[in-house]
Design a protein that fits this description.
The chain is mainly α. Helix content is 72%, strand content 0%. Helix 5 packs antiparallel against helix 6. The chain is globular and about 65 Å long.
């Protein structure tokens, strides 16, 4: 049986759905506190979240990606990723009043473009010896080229591809399916406590653009060799934090697991709430101070749950799963 058919035939794992749901909630929370970065507590949490949540998304995407791409796989990429990207690119740019364009993905939509590229790149890299090392070299070299940036999400595609490939490699090893020992989970909790301390001390001295993966080294103000060293360090730290996060994710079934299966809806839709609710977040801080962060954390979890619900999925299916575009454009090949 081919690898992708083996993967597709497995029952759905609540572990991956729990991980998706938690990461989406962190994305919503991270975006919600962007307006509060002048305050030390908010800045500390912001850096801590961005240190691992996007790398962890790339890791999970790689863990679940088929190693081979056939005609059906190309069809899923075209109409499951690129078609929703085109729809939401129009919606977001119209909503914020910016000129329409497709070359530079709007804000959070870069992930759809990068994921499509990663899935297309995976069959090639899967055949390479030292594939992970090649991906790391590609990520480090991307920052040395000023032309590799926001256009077509090219910089982030290169920078986070090692995490995607790492997830795919580790999934095949079976490591992710094992239940962590209590000591391992305690070590993961200690690691995140240390992360908060380091972010609290160093957030004011570290350029947050290193966490985005979009800027050339020259734009950040460092030379190619120091830039590569910093990027390599950031990749290594984010990989360790990703594994620590996954260690804490519940493995067993729960009532919340089905929400994780629909978490793409929350990812695509929450940006409208963030863009038009930024002023209210600042006003809330003036009233509640640091308690605003706790309120936003609860609100992020609630928003994630609602936007990942079944009835929201049904309402927005024509946008997030545009089968109507597929029916218009796709012509099935003749038999044989």
């Amino acid at each position: 049986m081919r690898p992708e058919r083996q993967l597709a035939s497995r029952p759905r794992s609540p572990f991956y759905d729990h991980a998706r749901l938690g990461l989406i909630a962190l994305v919503v929370f991270g975006h919600a506190i962007e307006a509060l970065l002048d305050h030390p507590a908010a800045r500390t949490l912001y850096f801590a979240v961005y240190a691992f949540h996007i790398p962890a998304f790339a890791f999970l995407s790689g863990a679940l990606a088929p190693e081979r791409i056939d005609l059906a796989g190309l069809r899923r990429i075209a109409f499951g990723l690129l078609a929703p990207y085109a729809i939401f690119q129009v919606l977001y740019l119209k909503a914020v009043g910016e000129p329409l364009g497709f070359v530079v993905p709007y804000w959070l939509l870069w992930y759809l473009v990068s994921l499509a590229c990663w899935r297309l790149m995976l069959p090639l890299f899967a055949q390479l010896r030292g594939a992970l090392l090649c991906a790391v070299v590609l990520a480090c070299m991307a920052g040395a080229l000023n032309d590799v940036g926001y256009a077509f999400a090219l910089s982030r595609t290169c920078v986070f591809f090692p995490l995607f490939l790492f997830g795919h490699t580790l999934r095949k090893s079976g490591w992710l399916e094992r239940t962590p020992r209590p000591g391992t989970r305690l070590a993961a909790l200690a690691g995140f406590a240390l992360l908060l301390v380091l972010c609290g001390v160093g957030a004011g001295h570290f350029d947050h653009r290193w966490l985005y993966g979009t800027n050339a080294y020259a734009e950040i103000g460092v030379g190619p060799l120091p830039g590569m060293a910093i990027r390599l360090t950031v990749l290594a730290v984010s990989a360790v934090l990703t594994l620590a996060f996954l260690t804490l994710v519940p493995r067993g079934p729960s009532p919340w697991a089905p929400l994780g299966a629909r978490s793409l809806n929350a990812y695509l839709l929450h940006g409208f709430l963030i863009r038009f609710g930024g002023a209210s977040v600042v006003a809330l801080w003036s009233l509640c101070g640091n308690w605003t962060l706790a309120l936003l954390a609860v609100g992020a979890a609630a928003v994630t749950g609602v936007l990942s619900s079944g009835w929201v999925a049904w309402c927005v299916r024509p946008l997030t799963q545009p089968t109507w575009i597929e029916r218009l454009l796709w012509r099935s090949p003749p038999p044989g």
